[in-house]
Amino acid sequence: MRRKIVAGNWKMNKTFQEADELINEIIDGLDEANQKNVNVVICPPFTFLEMTTDYAQESDYAVGAQNVSSFDTGAYTGEVSARILHSMGVEYCIIGHSERRSHFKETDSELTQKAELLLKNDILPIFCCGELLPDRESGKHFDIVKQQLDKALFGLDPLDFAKIIIAYEPVWAIGTGKTASPEQAQEMHAFIRSLISEKYGKEIAKNTSILYGGSCNAENAKVLFSNPDVDGGLIGGACLKAADFLKIIDSF
Ligand code: PEP
User: What is the mean pLDDT of the chain?
Assistant: First the structure.
């Protein structure tokens, strides 16, 4: 079912004590806020997942991971599997973030494996896609996003694909303070929905949540979320301050 979602990607920020403080500030705000049926997802570093899932039992948010291994189980030192995440109460997981594609050279086939393992373990993938600045400047942005979806996701069977959440994140907007205009976001989200419709049919396309990410903040969230094909946001920098994150949640 298509849902409004605001997910906070903490990336590699906060110490244990700072994380504890931030989660508690968010919880206090969520208790007071009218969430308007918004699904709030907090994606801290792996090491804070246990604390975040513990607190989630008393509050109204879900927990996401920022990454998962493309291997199922076994001798993969340093990796964290979908099975482990599920056993800790994790319900969502970001895959294909541009930082992982660029710094860790994640490939489309690894992303397919990650999506399949997450789905097998009842975790909803938040699949990131988006073009680099030169791609947009040369008018290739639609082709790039189409390729990313085709290669990593469009081999999934319809029942599996129906559980995927898409995050359109133009790479030139991530952490730069340059947000896509509401028109650019709507245009790409509508394009993504049309691709899903061609591949999986209207019903699945209508029900897929497509989030916007890239310098979305407390000031611009309302206008971005007011677009018909924008179902929420994947938030980086602005989720590290409770007041800003809560204001974004309240932007629908
Ligand atoms: C992100 O990294 O997913 C992101 C959207 O970052 P920021 O909001 O800081 O641009």
Answer: 97
| 47 in Cβ contact with 78 (< 8 Å) | no
User: What domains sit in the chain, N to C, each tagged with a CATH number?
Assistant: 4-249 (3.20.20.70)
Query: Within the chain, what is the greatest distance between any pair of CA atoms?
Result: 49
pLDDT for 34: 67
- Residue whose CA is closest, atom 2 of ligand 1? 236
Does 97 qualify as catalytic in the annotation?
yes
Measure 154 CA to ligand 1 centroid, in angstroms: 25
Residues 137/122, Cβ–Cβ less than 8 Å: no
Give me the torsion for CA of 224, 229, 231, 233, rounded to 10°.
-40
**Of the candidates 89, 96, 101, the residue with the CA atom closest to the CA atom of residue 68:** 96
**How wide is the angle at C-alpha 9 spanned by C-alphas 220 and 136, nearest 5°?**
60
Are 168 and 160 spatial neighbours (Cβ–Cβ below 8 Å)?
Answer: no
| Per-residue DSSP letter, 35 | -
CA distance 113 to 120: 10
CA dist., res. 170 & res. 242, Å (int): 24
- Gap between the Cα atoms of 250 and 131, Å rounded: 28
Question: Is the distance from the beta carbon of residue 175 to the nearest atom of ligand 1 less than 6 Å?
Answer: yes
Contact 175, 215 (CB under 8 A): yes
Place 36 in a pLDDT band, splitting at 50, 70 and 90.
confident
Q: pLDDT-based confidence at 241, cuts 50/70/90?
A: very high
Atom of ligand 1 nearest to the CA of 238: 8
This model's pTM is above 0.85: yes
Look at residue 129 and give its three-state secondary structure: strand
